[in-house]
Amino acid sequence: MHALFEEAGKFQAGRILSEAESSAQIELDSGKRVKVKGANILMKFDKPAPAELLAKGRELAATIDLDLAWEFAPEGEFGFADLASDYFSESSSVTEQAAALLALHEAPHYFRRAGKGRFKKAPAEILQQALAGIEKKRLIQEQITVWAQELGGGACPQPIRDQLYKILFKPDKNAPEYKAVVEASRATHKAPLDLLQAAGAIDSAYEFHWKRFLFENFPKGTSFPQINAPQPPQDLPLAPVQAYSIDDSQTTEIDDALSVQGLGTGTVTLGVHIAAPGLAIVPGSPLDQLGRSRLSTVYMPGYKITMLPDEVVKIYTLDEGRANPAVSLYVTINEETLEITGTETKLERVPVAVNLRHDKLDHIVTEEWLNDASITVDGTPQELLDRRSEMSFLFRLAQKLKAGREVVRGKPETFNRPDYNFRLEGNNGAEPTGNETVSITTRKRGAPLDLIVAEAAIVANSTWGQLLADHGVPGIYRSQYSLAPGVKVRMGTKAQPHAGIGVKCYAWSTSPLRRYVDLVNQWQIIACARHGKTAALAAPFKPKDADLFSIISSFDAAYGAYNGYQAGMERFWTLKYLEQNGITEIEATVIKDNGGAGMLVRADALPLVISVFGAQNLPRGARALIKLGDIDEITLDIHGTVLQRLDDPEDASDDGEVSEEDEDDDSVAGPIAIAVDVNETDAADAPQGAQAKPQSSDNS
């Protein structure tokens, strides 16, 4: 005697060895013996053999017309044998009964289980809904298959093109577009990004990087909503100065300007004048919310996304020929000793006489030109000559301030790398396409004009940071506990030392048109300037204000993403520069051994760090001629091979310079993290975060 029984939701059959009142010992075809409860035994039979019964039963079950079976089935609860009698014949065979059981069990949308071997047919309306759902799934799967075949054949269906960045970086893993990419990737044995590239989903490398950045950071686009630009207060006093700014020619958000009074009197007053949108933008207003959503201007070669709308920037930027609202810090200085003897903060309108552009003046304003009034340079503009004595004083002051900070730092600041400037020809400030001709020029870091502006900003940011602390008004500070390796700059609400700069505290306050934290600090500074000792009561943000911590967290994330994108785009245009100029070899300095990835080297004349391989690894600081390999503009990757060593191994004097900044550099290509995982067995339930092939790092 044999038995068909159910165990853990599965049907099995075997030979009955023995039976008790409530159970039976059954031997399966495999020889395994199992104890089965009597309630689980659904049918006993003499023949056919157990394995044959299951095989023929499954074969016959597949032929059962479920719609017809549903029609035949009784309205109430019934057993599988009852259905077999109605569907096949009153004298249905054991095999037909087994087929009915298997068919009922595998059609839960037609029949609901009501116990062991017992069922009840689903209501008609529920059945229709279930069948419609099954049909919908079938059609979706057919669509997935068609799309996957198109991808595998080198064509990208429009729905997948439309959702490309969502699929790659923030997918709905139940979506048919995502499943089609996974299916095609498995079928073609291609990585998802390679597959999509080959199918033409990515029109250009530049577009890929740009649209990925927008998808992750500006999902609603970069345009501004219609908003009324607030006008500045009309009762501000006019400052008795003629200020001037020093910026790059491409700068339109001019946040800061300088003025000098009292030269030759023994007491000089330096004015650091900062554009004051905080005098009109109200915390919590729509314009504030707009700035808080963006948090910073985004810079990249040839283009930028501003934090505030152009109409707002135009009102508050410190353009020449206007008297614009400003928060001014006046610093009193002993002209002989260059010691700071006092500071004062004022809210006023500041006449700006001229906007000086350092890229047009750096070749004139050299250290020698500033220190020797007899030196002349052809083509020096009159507005610069008129301020030569002031510039000379500011340069001496900047040198003194820098030296003082270096004492606190414990070591001098070094500028061993130049700054690189990127210019795109032909786009005229419009959104680049990636096909523009790029030029890359260098300027010495720490050039006199840079030093003047930087030291004035440090004085303002440290002085105003202390002003907030003295008045019990919270601000957003940048601090660094020490210069020990691994100690990073942090943002917080407490006035703490910044070891990297060498000041007691440091609160970004000099770029309120471009950075949201500077605007926040400006509101707090304005409260101090207006209310003095009662400023803590009037300031928009109170001590331990949770909003400040939220701003810090959001700003850190956004600023890091923006800087990472800027670094990636600078690398993109550097690779374009190599292509456009047919550069196949570069001279470079070894930064460090990069383990199994060869050596990490920095190009001597370009902003480029790459991995290279050679017959043997060269030591840190060695200089070499590098043969460049193929460029991948999607991953921003390029490798090189050492052709020859250029320095004398026995003479350290011709080694290249390598600083701690170089050691920590991570601007070489790293992985692009995409969220498509072709190894997932269930795309809807599996974790995200698969790694694709390398791309430049997102850290600047």
Describe the structure.
The chain has 21 helices and 26 strands. It has 700 residues and is of the alpha+beta class. The strands form eight sheets. Strands 4-3-2-1-5 form a five-stranded antiparallel beta sheet. Helix 3 packs across helix 4.
Topology at a glance:
Layout: E1 2-7, E2 10-19, E3 23-27, E4 33-37, E5 41-45, H1 50-61, H2 66-72, E6 78-79, H3 80-87, H4 94-105, E7 111-115, E8 118-121, H5 124-152, H6 158-162, H7 164-169, H8 176-188, H9 192-198, H10 205-217, E9 243-247, E10 256-261, E11 267-275, H11 286-294, E12 298-300, E13 303-305, H12 310-316, E14 322-334, E15 340-357, H13 358-361, H14 367-371, H15 382-385, H16 388-409, E16 419-425, E17 437-443, H17 448-470, E18 477-479, E19 490-492, H18 516-531, H19 535-538, H20 546-580, E20 585-593, E21 599-603, E22 609-613, E23 623-632, E24 637-645, H21 660-663, E25 669-673, E26 691-696
Parallel strand pairs: 9-15, 22-24
Antiparallel strand pairs: 1-2, 1-5, 2-3, 3-4, 6-8, 7-8, 10-11, 11-14, 12-13, 14-15, 16-17, 18-19, 20-21, 20-23, 21-22, 23-24, 25-26
Helix pairs in contact: 1-4, 3-4, 5-8, 10-20, 16-17
What characteristics describe this protein?
700 residues, alpha+beta, five-stranded antiparallel β-sheet, five-stranded mixed β-sheet, 26 strands, 35% helix
Radius of gyration: 37 Å
Span between N and C termini? 77 Å
Instruction: Give the beta-strand count.
Output: 26
Task: Provide the structure class.
Answer: alpha+beta
Instruction: Determine the oligomeric state from the structure.
Output: single chain
Report the biggest beta sheet as strand number plus sense, adding barrel if it closes: 5 strands, antiparallel
Percentage of residues in DSSP E strands: 15-25%
Strand adjacency order, main sheet: 4-3-2-1-5
Mean pLDDT: 89
Tertiary shape: elongated
Give the number of helices: 21
Low-confidence stretches: 683-700
Helix content: 25-40%
